[in-house]
Amino acid sequence: MTTVAITPMNEQQHTGQTPKTLGLNLVWDKAEKAKVKSVLAKYPKGRERSATIPLLKLAQDKCGGWLPVDAMQLVADTVNEPYIRVYEVATFYTMFNLKPVGKFHVQVCTNCACLIRGSDGVTKAVKDIAGVDSSGATSKDGTFTFTEVECLGACVAAPMMQIGTHYFTHLTEEKTKDILNHLKEGGDPLKYADTPNAASDPLHNGDYEEHV
Amino acid sequence: MPKQTVPILKQEEKVFQNLEGQDDWSLAGYKKRGGYKGLKKLLTTDRIKHIEKMKESALRGRGGAGFPTGMKWSFMPDPAKTGKPSYLVCNADEGEPGTCKDRDILRYDPHTLVEGMIIGCYTLAAKTGYIYVRGEYYDESSRLQQAINEAYEAGFLGKNIQGTGVDVDIHVHLGAGAYICGEETALLESLEGKKGQPRLKPPFPAGYGLYGCPTTINNVETIAQVPPILKNKLEWWTQHGRPNNHGTKIFSISGSVNRPINVEAPMSIPLKELIETYAEGVIGGWKNLQAVIPGGSSTPMLNKGEAGKVLMDFDGLREYGTGLGTAAVIVMNQDVDVLRVMTRISAFYKHESCGQCTPCREGVGWVYTLMKRLSNGEGTVEELEQLQKLTKKIEGHTICAFADGAMWPVQGTLRCFKDEFERRIEAKEEVA
After folding, report:
1. Is A112's CB within 8 Å of B98's CB?
2. B165-178: per-residue pLDDT in tens?
3. What does the alpha-carbon distance between residue B19 and residue B34 come to, in Å, rounded to a whole number?
4. How far is A1 from chain B (nearest CA, A)?
5. Residues B134, B180 contacting (CB under 8 angstroms)
């Protein structure tokens, strides 16, 4: 067996790269513990690693929409895996943000169906309102982060964007501006969100099934 | 020659009677539409008979590859012999650009999927089923979770379903944004909590799938179509479509049409009839059509002449060197910059390559660079040749079909719009 010499990292490499450096000592709170338990119950004994993605999502929500290294360490500890196993998953999937995002993460689809039906106007509106000029940028006041994303699967309702968990469809430049201004002023996203308007809709009748 | 078809399906001919969300999505509404009727009988019929009927129905997978479902199911070994649990995994990681049918199933008719999972699990002797939903569909998965909860309460899920002795549990698992997880073995990796990188086949999932156990992976639409196929007479299904392409199918018609729509229609319907009957035609009329992508971004495009003749089924599209894929029809009229759209699609594949195989990881980036350059008229005519050759060096040289799917649309563009590339290059040269 060969041993690998580990050289100590310098300060710069250290910062933000190694778990627990932020010293946040994150733990699941009571409500989160219940969710962790229900997630783990979905998979057979000994297959806790399957919960990595759902738990990363839970951790991301806990940390205001992004994953500091400590949050990934918390997930790693929960599923009994080394930190790197969780880190490689967090870097692989686009929905995990490895740096902070604004209060509203505006994800605009610019793929084929949306492009054909005018996603340029949507992109322009978001950039104008947020005052940013490129994908991945956050507005100065921290309200909006704009990200250009791949197909979100609402092509017959193009162009569209996602903010939080909700889809906003059939957009125009004007409508996009209205929505962002509405959100900025603290308005209810459901006023514009593409969720079914039937009385049975969980978002409206209070039966929304929160799950991970 | 295109044959005459029944353009509008009657309600009782449809699998998804609430696809447009006009009616109640919940258990009560689904039962009113005939759902769960006859479930008990199916769960007490010999499961081998179900597999035989699936084979006879010639149902082909609705997720893109079109593999015969009955045959796939027949590969599953008997758990009594393997000593391992079997799994049914539903692929709801819908991400192929242009495709949005599963989203409407999940939010408007989720019980079709739940009932399909129950019967599917029974037929494959699986006690547990997972539904892998793409992470962006959180609201939709909430609806699905409610449907599952309703089914548990009504005794359609859990232990000893309807007193038949059959046990089935279903869990929803959310992904986190990776197109490649729609590839079945990448999906299994992701479900095991890893990066979504496809596995080498063989071994196939029926032998070594989730947690190393026998596993079948099917698309949402495929699984939801199983209960009505098994409940009805065979003719109910085979009356639609040509042999080997039977049944109905959801078509997602997007792009330059007057009414973009998800619609369930008979297989083998002529493409022109599909667009004109359901999507109210091309914007500016059929004469204004430029090109059509017939089955999601991975399938090569058709020019106007071909689009006017082709039949929408697996074999019909194959005759034209393309495929039915997910039946996501993306229409482009004369107002659309086709080369820009196709370059955007190349950018998509560059972003979504999982990075495992070198030809794909490096190659799709180069293809995107060339597409971007050439569509701006910045390249040379020789580079067009180079691009064509490059696609052939990438296609077929990787673990999974992702790279093939990334190259086909580029090859299709070169076939249909080579003159447009050349025109742009010349125009740029003249200016210089």
Report:
1. yes
2. 999 999 999 999 99
3. 15
4. 27
5. no
